[in-house]
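Summary for the funding panel

The consortium committed to producing paired sequence-structure records for every protein in the target list. Below we show the first two records in order, beginning with the earlier of the two.
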Amino acid sequence: MAIATQASSVIDALNAANSSLAKKTAGAAGDTQDRFLKLLVTQMKNQDPLNPMDNAQVTSQMAQLSTVSGIDRLNSTLQALSDSMAASQTMTAASMIGRGVLVPGATMSLANGQALGGIELALPADSVTVKITDAAGALVRTLHLGAQQAGILPLAWDGLTDTGASAADGVYRFTAEAVLAGSRSTATTLAFGMVNAVTPGAKGATLDVGRLGGFALSEVKQVM
């Protein structure tokens, strides 16, 4: 219920802003037309009776007015479309509050014997190896994941070290190495976090993923 209320508030705020922008744009277009017509009428009133404006001049100026009006309408339509897309993106992002996501990153938070992360493989791999290190850079655990398909690979660590001992709770770093036909292939590490809030912006919605920071909706690789 809290998520729905927050999402509704975000959309109401965006709608209010869009309405205000539309009124300003329409007002600007109307002012341009009024000034253009007043100038044309003034020219016609003050023209030399012995050398009046010819039809070509009047037609040319009217065509310019039509072009300006058309551009104003096109700009208004594009702005409305952009605002609508931004509102839709924000609504989608708001529905992710409280959900776990995988985003670009190379850290794992270990708590109560559980840590989550992920790997993005550009190509299939014959073998994937993950190395987990502590804050001092010391190797804690090596995970051999075997052959994997291309795509997003969720990763879970039980908190055990290579010696079988339980690692202390905290933040650990990890790297991934993928091998295909004897050569390394691209393996991108992904961090796991919970979406705490969504902030609308000129460039789209930004997700607040706790200690991991802010991410654009396009940076979310998987919703858990």
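The next record, for a separate protein in the list, is shown here:
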Amino acid sequence: MSRYILKRIGMMIFVVFGVLFFIFVLLYLTPGDPARQVLGLTATDEQVAAQRHLMGLDQPFLKQFGDYLYRLFFHFDLGTSYKTNLSVQEEIAKRVPVTLLIGSLGVVLSLLIGIPLGILSAVKQYSFVDHISNIFAVIFTSMPSFWFALELSLLFALRLHLLPATGFTGFRSIILPVVTLGLGGAAANYRMSRSAVLDEIRKDYVRTARAKGTKEMEVIMHHAVKNALIPIITQVGNSVGGILGGAVVVENVFSIPGMGTYLLGAINSRDYPIIRGGVLVICIFVSVCNLLTDIISAYIDPRIKSYYKNMGKKKAARKGTVETS
């Protein structure tokens, strides 16, 4: 099992490095001059050239990338903002808790709604509950999160005056963002839960359990749902990344001082250190969530454990054979 975990950690490191390299290349090839953006249109060419040298933008690509990796891995330095001249990691540290709070509450809401509703819909297939749930899933799966956020803001803030439309001033100010993220994630969790449980209910071992006189609740929860957990857990892990990505958009709609507004402002002003640092932090968080999902799935699925256990035995047998010979 430890072999599988180490393999997944190695793949996660490779993915994070690949994303960092890709975003570095993308920003390097993007038209526009951050030095001109900082100094303004009235700056002379000599001033812009001096500013580019100060930012290190006049260096070759590999030199810039190598210097960035050196500062990142040996000094844990994400750089300094071009616009505010503040440390990127300190600014990100202030905003990450806000994004994690909204994203985690959105994930919890999506789980509390999506998975139980999916199981109920699978058990009551073709019933009124199933039809209503399918309509709910189709609507919230196809609905853009920014549009839904605007509609909630218009209804509950401007028309009913029940909740604040913008800002981060307390619990009431995060209700609309959490609902926006949670309902979108619940639709995806519902569809996967319903499909997985339906697939298990139709198998022979469930019919055998029912034929033995086992209670229906025990058949569903201890047999069908238990064996349907692997695809459900995989979907939950994927939805975490989707909800965090949606949080970047939703934060801008509700003017919440999280990673979303920070990244969008950096993109508009071509503040490369903030963009690199923000994308890197989000990538690491999503990769860690996917790693935990794979580890949980491996502990639940006996096939993965037996596969790596057999690999270890084969390698030990080969080593013993080589030593004997």
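Regarding this second record: The chain is about 80% helix and 0% strand. The mean pLDDT is 83.
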